[in-house]
């Protein structure tokens, strides 16, 4: 077998292991989300009735971060897998898995910063009564404003620029490739930043349907996946923008 054939065989094996690893992380995140809202003894929701102590704030931060991992990793997987394959092709003797781990850590680190901001926003909104502390949902006025904001954002040049980076794994890796461990970490951070720019207002819509609602979390995660990886993601984005604008106007009319 030629050297090129050996490298391609290694790339295929790496892709399988890397896919299984990313799938395992996302699956564990979903399992945590679906089970963390219940106390084993009495089957009652746990964090949402507690006062905002430092421990509760840390629990909310962890919840947001795991939720972001569950929702965003599937859509980020193509770029992460391509980065690992490129690492193998450029450095056949080196294992690509440490670089994949660092790239994933950089990506999730950006969403960790978002989770910190989301936790602070949740605290402030609950404190002012704009978000119900039990259901973790916003009132009609705030929900309508969030829907309108997300709808308008779908049509902005910034949204489209960020979405193009997220939808083109080959172009992203070709443009942002850096060798070594720090290069992999940097690529993950850059990809996470573009992804955050694309989806941050969509994630804010969790306050509309319920921060811990499995259905709402799943619906948003599926939409993000289709918008980024679907063959007609641009059309879906425009249609979603119009629907969000209509829903926002309806809620604001009801709140008036």
TrEMBL record:
Transmembrane segments annotated in the record for this chain: 16-37, 57-82, 94-114, 134-155, 194-224, 236-253
Q: Which domain of life is it from?
A: Bacteria
| InterPro entries in UniProt | PpoB2-like
Q: Which residues form a coiled coil?
A: none
Q: Which UniProt keywords are listed? A: Membrane, Transmembrane, Transmembrane helix
UniProt keyword Membrane, yes or no: yes
Keyword Membrane set for record: yes
Name of this chain's protein: DUF2182 domain-containing protein
Q: Organism source for this protein?
A: Benzoatithermus flavus
């Amino acid at each position: 077998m030629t050297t090129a054939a050996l490298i391609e065989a290694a790339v295929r094996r790496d892709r399988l292991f890397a896919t299984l690893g990313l799938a395992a992380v996302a699956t564990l995140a979903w399992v945590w989300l679906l089970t963390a809202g219940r106390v084993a003894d009495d089957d009652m929701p746990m964090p949402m009735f507690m006062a905002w102590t430092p421990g509760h704030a840390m629990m909310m931060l962890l919840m947001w971060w795991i939720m972001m991992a569950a929702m965003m990793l599937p859509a980020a997987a193509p770029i992460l897998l391509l980065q690992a394959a490129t690492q193998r092709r450029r450095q056949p003797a080196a294992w690509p898995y440490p670089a994949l781990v660092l790239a994933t850590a950089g990506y999730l680190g950006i969403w960790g910063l978002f989770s910190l901001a989301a936790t602070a926003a949740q605290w402030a909104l609950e404190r002012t009564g704009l978000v119900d502390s039990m259901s973790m949902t916003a009132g009609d006025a705030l929900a309508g404003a969030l829907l309108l904001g997300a709808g308008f954002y779908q049509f902005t040049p910034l949204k489209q620029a960020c979405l193009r980076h997220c939808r083109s794994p080959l172009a992203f890796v070709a443009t942002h490739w850096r060798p070594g461990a720090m290069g992999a970490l940097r690529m993950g951070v850059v990809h996470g930043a573009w992804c955050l720019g694309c989806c941050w207002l969509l994630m804010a819509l969790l306050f509309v349907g319920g921060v811990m609602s499995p259905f709402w979390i799943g619906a948003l995660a599926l939409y993000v996946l289709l918008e980024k990886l679907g063959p007609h993601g641009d059309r879906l984005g425009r249609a979603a923008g119009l629907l969000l604008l209509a829903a926002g106007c309806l809620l604001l009319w009801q709140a008036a």
